[in-house]
Structures are given as structure tokens and as C-alpha cells.
Amino acid sequence: MAMWSVVTPEDVGIKNSAPSARAKHSATLVGDHVYLLG
Predict the structure, then answer these.
(1) In contact, 30 and 16? CB cutoff 8 Å
(2) What domain of life does the native source organism fall in (predicted)?
(3) Strands 33-37, 26-30: parallel, antiparallel or unpaired by DSSP?
(4) CA 38 to each of CA 1, 2, 9, 16, 20: distance values in angstroms, whole numbers, following the listed order
(5) pTM (two decimals)
(6) Do the beta carbons of residue 19 and residue 9 sit within 8 Å?
(7) Based on C-alpha coordinates, what's the Rg of the chain?
């Protein structure tokens, strides 16, 4: 089972396009705590 997957924007090649929703974000679960980074 993969924990991570590659996400590519649908509008590749369009100048000044917005990044995909998951770009540069990370989350992890430690015990009862969830940490969100990005």
C-alpha cells in the first residue's frame, strides 16, 4: 500500500496556473495527534 502518490496539475503548460491542492503539503498521525505541514 502506497502512503504517497504523485499529484500533477490538470492544466500543465498554462502560464501562471495554480498549484494542485496537495502541492507542498504533508500530514502525519502521531498517537492521538494529527500534524499538518504546508
Answers:
(1) no
(2) Eukaryota
(3) antiparallel
(4) 24, 21, 18, 20, 13
(5) 0.38
(6) yes
(7) 14
Q: What is the largest CA-CA distance in the chain?
A: 42
For residue 10 the three cell numbers come to 490538470
Q: Where are the beta strands (DSSP E) in the chain?
A: 26-30, 33-37
**In whole angstroms, what is the distance from residue 27 CA to residue 22 CA?**
10
How many other CB atoms are found less than 10 A from the CB of residue 4? 7
Q: What are the cell numbers at 8?
A: 500533477
Q: How far apart are CA 9 and CA 34, in angstroms?
A: 26
